Amino acid sequence: MPRISQLYFKTAVIFLIVGVVMGLNMAISQDHSVIGAHAHCNLLGWVTMAIFGGYHALNPQKAEKRLAMIQYYVYTAGIALMVPSLYLMLQGNPAMEPLVALASIITLAGVLLFAFIIFSNGKVVVTPSAPSYR
Ligand code: HEM
Fold this sequence. Notes:
This protein is mainly alpha-helical. Helices cover 77% and strands 0% of the residues.
C-alpha cells in the first residue's frame, strides 16, 4: 500500500476513536449538543479519509505525486482544526466561530485538491495476466 494510504488510514482511525468517544460521551451524558462535531469528526475524519486512502491505494501512480501529499496535509489540517473548534462552539463558545469558518475553508481547499487529483490524468498501469499452462 502506498505511504499516503497508510498515512490516511492511520489519521482516519484516530478521528474514528475521537468521534466514537464523543458519541459515547453524548449518549452517557444525554447531552447531544455537540452532535455536529461528532458527525463531522466521523464522516469527514474517518469515512472520507478512508475513502481518500483507498483511492490512492487503487491509483499508486497518483499516490507518488507531491500533490497527493500536499492534499493530505491541507485536508488533515482543516479537519484537525474544525473538530475541536466546532466542539467548543457547540458547547457555547461563540468566539470559536471564525476558527470554524477558517477550518471549513481549509477543508474545502483539501476537497478541491482531491477533485483535481481525481480528474488529472494518471498513467494507465497494465497488470500482467497470469500465465496460462493449458
Ligand atoms: C460507539 C459509536 C457511536 C456512538 C455511541 C454514537 C452516538 C451518537 C449519538 C448519541 C448521537 C446523537 C443522536 C441524536 O441526538 O439524535 C449521534 C449522532 C450521529 N452520529 Fe453517532 N455515534 C457513534 C458512531 C458514529 C459513527 C462511526 C458515525 C459515522 C461514521 C456516526 C455518525 C453520526 C451522525 C451523522 C449523527 C447525526 C445524526 C442525526 O442528526 O440525525 N456516529 N451519534
